[in-house]
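Deviation from plan, reported transparently: iron/sulfur cluster complex.
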Amino acid sequence: MKIGIPKALMYYTYYPLWKHFFEQLGYETVVSGNTSKIILNNGVMNCVDDACLPVKLFHGHVMDLLDKADAVFIPRLTSINPGEFICPKFIGLPEMIKSSIKGLPDVLVLDHNAYRNIKNAYKAFVDIGKKLTGSTSMAVQSLKLARMSQKKYETILKQGETPLDIFETGEGHEINNVKGIIGLVGHPYLLYDQYVSMRIIAKLRNMGYRVMVPENIENTLIQEVCNRLPKKLFWSYGKKLLGSGLVMLENNMVDGLIFLSSFACGIDSFILELLHRYNQRRYRVPCTLITVDEHTGHAGFNTRLEAFIDMIEWRKAYDNNLSTYGTSVSGG
Ligand code: SF4
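Because the crystal trials were delayed, the predicted structure below was used instead.
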């Protein structure tokens, strides 16, 4: 049996874990294709209108697997860290897919809920493994090996690689004459999806900039800056984006910061605003927000990116790092 893994949402976070788990159980895995206009259009046409772009895309990727896989894997991520939740859209994903897409093969749902205890999330893997093979010990052993692959992947990311450098091996990221480092803050399913991110990482590298992404930042540092915030952030991805952005700013790690967001994302609407306000009050690093949706095109996107990079370079060259604008409205 071939198990299909949609190349969307948390694929860029957990692919090594999922792939190795199923393969250790003795199953072949197949991944949906890279996002394309067809996949995006299929997603848009087969999803409820008010979903965010990444959820629509997930629908398109499931459709891409219909004739490639005997079963489709759909994780229900309720909580990925103890004491925290993840966006509610992930919780209803299996039901959304089942009600919107006709002709689905078997659906393998993983109930990943680490809210009370991370062991509960691992137990969900063992349950699936046992269901597929009838053997608890095989499921436990497969999970153990899959977790080792996942750990290795996360270690490489912490050394400065992006998931694209690991998964899309043809990309290459050598830069001659590095001009600086740009922090890119956004959900993994936006930053590393080459279609919706308009290849932003490759474009920045072609302009002579290294990129720093949330996956490069140690979780302990993220936790440390978030502990200093007036309120606890209980949404894992909100915390990761705000925390990694603050670590980059506080430690002077980047020459500029780009927030990449998708239209209709509830979490981004306040997390990125918070990051922007902290930046204006304390760090005053050049930053910009780029929001993508299903209508975003390369021309407008490139203009925003080039204008931002020009602004950083002109500021360095002529402004002596003092803003010509003066005190910002939100800076107080
Ligand atoms: S966090 Fe935002 S982009 Fe991600 S699934 Fe939720 S609403 Fe969509």
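The chain has a mean pLDDT of 92. We consider this an acceptable substitute for the interim report.
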